[in-house]
UniProtKB/TrEMBL annotation:
GO terms for molecular function: complement receptor activity; leukotriene receptor activity. Residues 334-347 have a biased composition (Polar residues). Its main location: membrane. Residues 334-365 are annotated as: Disordered. It is found in: Cell membrane. The chain crosses the membrane at residues 33-58, 70-93, 113-135, 147-169, 200-222, 242-265, 285-307. Keywords: Cell membrane, Disulfide bond, G-protein coupled receptor, Glycoprotein, Membrane, Phosphoprotein, Receptor, Transducer, Transmembrane, Transmembrane helix. It holds the Pfam family 7tm_1. The keyword Calcium does not apply. One of its GO terms (cellular component) is plasma membrane. GO terms for biological process: inflammatory response; phospholipase C-activating G protein-coupled receptor signaling pathway; positive regulation of cytosolic calcium ion concentration. It comes from Scomber scombrus. The lineage of its organism: Eukaryota, Metazoa, Chordata, Craniata, Vertebrata. Residues 348-365 have a biased composition (Low complexity). This is Leukotriene B4 receptor 2b.
Length: 365
């Protein structure tokens, strides 16, 4: 923890701190190199992938469902944050922050906002699926266009407010690593241990544990309902639903585990060997786990493409739009309108209502 320099460039508003929890956060060569590689791949895949989704919805989709509106918001959020990854790639590659203090605060604020927006949008999609499958007669009333727009606006306002700690607790500072090399880092600064516990615990509870619990509960009830029907074309749909849940948890869980490790470290004395171990784990893993979290923003286009692969040959570049419209042809050649919940033949009214509502909300063939 020693070796912090107090020589600051006179033209910059950099800060120092007596005992920050993240000294030399980019001094681990392996961690930062791996993180830069992951972010590079994320950038190349995520930017065009999310732009393609946005284009498919705005230019090629003939009608919008609730799920389509939520996916459009998710793609806009993910596409925007993917475009900003170039700054973090440079940061990790140079192992030094070169963009100034305002950009340090702004970029990490936007990343934090994207984290909340992504999980909240996925949660809204899961709740919409739950109502459509379990209470199909109420879905039209509860998810009217005006209500959905109001919910989305409220969600974005809430996201911006919840991300404020990233503006308050992050600054550029000068650090010296174990090799006595001075570097500028964009890192959290907490004057008191309770500030550390508040920020990281709040991120994990509000941005992962609570919404993810809603998602898992919703999908459990959805699968239970689908298994009670006689509509047997839902096997691939079940896999698709589980893939969404597992994918999100897989990429975000390591990030939140590191958050909890950081929180746990603050409960030990400064000279405790346990605290030193936990601090080392958090500092050496933060770059990689943050990069893994970014993958979730570029994985959705891949998942949608896999889900819509049966449309590619017939619809060409419009295949994604056809998926979002929720219109497809079953194996027997019968058309189903997945927005009205009616089918021409093959299932009972009750089963077709539940099955078609499930299909409307992302359950594809």
């Amino acid at each position: 923890m020693n070796g912090r320099t107090t020589l600051l460039p006179p033209t910059e508003n950099f800060t120092t701190l007596g005992n920050p929890e993240d000294d030399s956060v980019v001094s681990n060569d392996f961690s930062t190199a791996l993180g830069a590689l992951i972010l590079g791949l994320v950038f190349l895949l995520g930017v065009p992938g999310n732009l393609f989704i946005i284009w498919s919805i705005l230019a090629r989709a003939k009608r919008y469902s609730v799920t389509t509106m939520l996916i459009l918001n998710l793609a806009c959020a993910d596409g925007f944050i993917m475009a900003l990854t170039i700054f973090f790639i440079i940061y990790l590659a140079k192992q030094q922050w070169v963009f100034g203090n305002p950009m340090c605060k702004l970029l990490f604020y936007l990343c934090n906002a994207n984290m909340y927006a992504s999980i909240f949008l996925i949660t809204l999609m899961s709740v919409h699926r739950l109502v459509a499958v379990v209470f199909p007669l109420k879905v039209t009333f509860l998810f009217r266009k005006k209500i959905v727009l109001r919910v989305l606006i409220s969600m974005w306002v809430l996201v911006m407010v919840m991300s404020v700690p990233s503006l308050v607790f992050r600054n550029v500072r000068l650090d010296k690593d174990e090799m006595n090399k001075t570097r500028l880092v964009c890192a959290p600064e907490h004057e008191l241990p309770r500030h550390v516990r508040f920020q990281y615990a709040f991120e994990t509870v509000a941005g992962f544990i609570l919404p993810y619990a809603v998602i898992v509960t919703s999908y459990v009830l959805i699968l239970k309902r689908l298994r009670q029907t006689k509509f047997r074309r839902n096997v691939r749909s079940e896999k698709f639903i589980l893939a969404i849940v597992v994918m999100f948890g897989l990429f975000w869980l390591p990030y939140h585990v590191i958050n909890m490790i950081q929180v746990a470290a603050e409960w030990y004395n400064e000279n405790s060997s346990t605290r030193e171990t936990l601090d080392y784990i958090a500092k050496s893993s933060r770059a990689v786990t943050s990069a893994l979290a970014f993958i979730s923003s570029c994985a959705n286009p891949v998942l949608y493409t896999f889900a819509a692969k049966s449309y590619i040959r017939q619809n060409g570049f419009a295949f994604m739009a056809r998926l979002f419209e929720g219109i497809s042809q079953d194996q027997s050649g019968n058309k189903k309108n997945r927005f009205t919940g009616k089918t021409t033949m093959g299932t009972s009214n009750a089963d077709s209502n539940s099955a078609n509502c499930a299909a409307q909300n992302g359950d594809v063939e």
